Amino acid sequence: MKMEKIMEIAKRRGFFWHSSAIYGGLAGFYDYAHLGTALKRRWENTWRDFFLSLEENFHEIEPCQMLHEKVFIASGHVDSFIDPVVRCKKCLNTERADHLLEEVLGGSFEGVSLTEMNELIKKHGIKCPKCGGALEEVGSINMMFPVEVGTGNPERAYLSPETAQGAYINFKQEFETLRKKLPLGLAVIGKAFRNEISPRNLLMRMREFTQAELQIFFDPETINQHPRFNEVENYAIRVFPVKNRGNGKIEEMACRDVVKRLELPVFYVYYMARIQQFYLDILGFPREVFRFKELSEEERAFYNKYHWDIEINLESLGGFREVGGIHYRTDHDLKGHQRVSGESMEVNIEGRKFIPHVLELSFGVDRNLYALLETFYAEEKERTVFRFPGGLSPFDVGVFPLVSKDGLPEKAKEVYTLLKKHGFSVFYDASGSIGRRYRRIDEIGIKAGITIDYQTLQDNTVTLRDRDSMKQIRVRTEDLSDVLRRFLSGERIQRLGEIIN
Ligand code: GAP
Q: In this predicted structure, what is the pLDDT of residue 308?
């Protein structure tokens, strides 16, 4: 229900909708509309500000998204980026076999062999969910989109299924230009493409989506240290290790204990702490909806030695769902690129030659946006509202003339221009009653509303309304940008002036 409501608002207000809709749409593809685009930029910038500031040697790059086929031979995606599929003999509907088992039997079937899946389907008499027909044997397909580049004698390329490979093939050159220092972080915010068998759940499983990934190249001999671990060693993170699958217990454990009791490297745990801080302190998610989930050996991606998912509890999807992951990829990728390209990926640090290892912090931007929309959606007696935290709304502020006459629109435009000049993103709305306009900004999650009324013409003050409490104060226009800045950075409205309603 909640997902349907969010889709309805997304479409009606302009967050996102099906792509190619005028031609009937294409499953797994969504276009971001004006509000969704603004919100997505905010999320991406928040991610950038946080993760790129963690170390001075962390940088953002923008590699191509269509890459030479050899990149994916080297990475292992050509052989191993496959999903189990099962097709209906009658209507030819194709489903992801592990997901179908999950839906019918419950539990997780990731990493289960094709033979076992076939046996389970037979044993439980599982039929096509669309038409009830019998199913063929479970097979597998590669999820990448191949592309022919050029004409005449075209070359094979692939649309990248993860942004990571773009960072790996640029690593050596970046390392050389960046004064040969480790750790080196290369971040990419970009598109990823996967021919998902059953795209579903809006932004949660798409065929074209955005990832924000940070690849941290480091010396494997330093994996049990981090110079700033002392800042987080007493900080408790929420972990759900494999051993707790039976009892469902999420444990709160100080980072120091995570290292000891879960036998994870200090370098790894340091970044788990930073990730949790990003979700709780920066994005403002409630603590109880967040957790790290350990993946078992069978569930881990083929390139990972340690693999914990970042999960958010989403009511509409029946529980915790993956929005990202923290992956220790060892030297799997650089070694592969060295082998296939013949280019050395070794670095020489103080006379010691080695291939750096990689810790990957990986986030699905669209899944994170969905999690944001769902978590901060609220239905109240007289309104629906997105109570987005901090700076995460599509616009900073809405500006409204109380009525469309008597010089109020002109004055409102002056305020609009003033705020734009001071760097705020401003939503201007002059149509409908003021009450309806407030409902509109509540429903798109804008935190601040400014109304220009008759009193403004007399004393140059405007009203500032808080989305969450619906309380208002009067502010002099010359103080407006300062007051607004303080309000948007979290100061309570009653501290900024006298409440007038
Ligand atoms: N570079 C590592 C990597 O790609 P992944 O777990 O396959 O790892 C990372 O993907 C994140 O990308 C996931 O945690 C998820 O948030 C997002 N993601 C993956 N497949 C997706 C899809 N089909 N639609 C939307 N987001 C997806």
A: 98
